[in-house]
Amino acid sequence: MTNITETFIGGLLKKSQEIPYDVIRQARKVLLDYTGVLVGGKKYLEEKHPELIKLAPSEAFLNGFAAHVLELDDGHRHGMIHLGASIVSGVLDAAKKEELKSEDVLRGIVMGYEVAVCCARAIQPGHKERGYHVSGTCGTIGSAMGIAFTCGYSKEQMKSTLACAVSSAAGVLEIQEQASEMKPFNVGRAAMAGVVAAQVGKLAMSGPDDILGGKRGFLAALTDTPKPFFLTDSSDDYAIMGIYQKVHAACRHCHPAIDASIDIRNNHNLKPEQIDHIEVRTYKLAVGSHDHTDIMGISSAKLSTPFAVALGIVRGSAGYADYNESNLEDNNINLITRRVRVIEDENLTAQSPEVRGAEVIIFLKDGNVYEASCLYPKGEPEHPLTQKELEGKFRGLAMYGGMTKAECDEVIKEIGNKDFSINEIRNLLCKK
C-alpha cells in the first residue's frame, strides 16, 4: 500500500533540487505582489483596527492577516486557495531569524506554494462544501513546509513538520458570513501555525507513518472527495506558475462578473438609470455566499457579486479604494446591487475549476439587452498581469501605505537583484 506522505515528500525533495529560472522569476513577482498587499493591508489596519496591530500574537500572524485583509492577495483557482499571505509570511519569519540567502527564500516560496496547492487540489471541492476554509487549512501546511524548504530541512524533519502542520490545519468558512471582518484571521493564524509547526518539526520527533493518507489523516478527515494522485503523481509543472494575481479587491469568485460588467460599461457608455435588471450566470461554487444583495459592511461587499457588478458599472473599477463607506451608501450602487440576480450556469459549473467564468446579461428599461462574458479574469495565468502592471499595483498599494515613489522604486530594484537581502527589503519598508 502506498505511503502517501513518503511519496509526497520524496517528490517535493526531487522537485526542489533544480528549480527552473522562469519559476524563480515568478517567485520574485510573488514576493513583490505580497509586499504591496502587506504594506497596504497594514495601513488599512492602522486606520480601522489599530488595536489589532498592538495585540497581534506574532509578526507572522499580523503579516498574514494584513496581507489578506484587502482581498488583493494571490491564489490558485484549482485549489480555490489564497497563498502568499500565509506562505510568504511564514517564510519571511524564518528568514529574519537565520542568515539565509535570497535563493533559500525563493526556493521556500516556490515549494510552499507547491505543497499548499497540491494539498488543496487533493481535497477540493469537498473541503469547501463541508465548510472548511482552505486558505486556513492548507495555508498552514504551505507555510510550514515553505519554511522547511527555506531552511534546508532533512527528509525526517520535513515529515515531522508536515505532521505538525496537518494536525494544526484549521479554518471554517462561516467566519466570513454576514458582516464579519474576521476572514483574514484564518490566514494570519495559518501563517503563525506554520511557523510553530516548522519549529517543532525541526526537532524531527517521531510521528505517524502517513499523516496524509492514514485512516484518520488529512484526506480522510478533511474531504468527501479525496484525490490522492495530486499528492503522489509528481509532474514537471510548478504550482506557482498557475497562480492568479488580483486587480480587483473582491473575492476571486466575483472577478469574472466584474470584468464582464466593466466591459459592458465601457463598450456601451452605460448609465445606471438605464438598467432594469441584471443576470449573472456563473459556476455553482461562485453562487452560494456570493449572491447576497444585503450588504452589511465592506467585508460583506467584497464577497458580494451583485455589489461588485454594481461597483464596476457605476465606478468602472473595483479596487481597494472603491470599497469604501461612501460607495456602500451610494444610491446608484445600492439600486443596481438589488437588481442583480446570480444564478448557476451548468455549463460553467462543468468547466470549473479549469475555467471559473461568468456571463453578465444587462436588461435595459428600453428593451435592449447587453451581454458580455469572461472566462479568465485579469491576473489568471491565461491573462496575466504584465511586469509593468504588477509594479503599478505595488506602487499604488505601497504609496497608500505611506511609502514614497522613490522608496517603491528601491524595493522593486532590490527584489529584482540576483542576491537580494530580506533585511534590506525590511529596512526599506520600515521607512514608510
Describe this entry's structure for a reader.
This protein has 432 residues and is an alpha+beta fold. Helix content is 55%, strand content 7%. It contains 21 helices and 6 strands. A hairpin with a 4-residue loop joins strand 1 and strand 2. The model has no long low-confidence stretch (mean pLDDT 95).
In short:
This protein is 55% helix and 7% strand.
Task: Indicate the topology.
Blueprint: H1 4-15, H2 21-48, H3 50-55, H4 59-69, E1 75-76, E2 81-82, H5 84-97, H6 102-123, H7 126-129, H8 134-150, H9 155-168, H10 183-201, H11 218-222, H12 229-232, H13 255-268, E3 275-282, H14 298-302, H15 305-315, H16 325-328, H17 331-337, E4 340-344, H18 346-351, E5 358-364, E6 369-374, H19 387-400, H20 405-416, H21 422-429
Parallel strand pairs: 3-4
Antiparallel strand pairs: 1-2, 3-5, 5-6
Helix pairs in contact: 2-4, 2-6, 2-19, 4-5, 4-10, 5-6, 5-8, 5-10, 6-8, 8-9, 8-10, 9-10, 13-15, 15-17, 19-20, 20-21
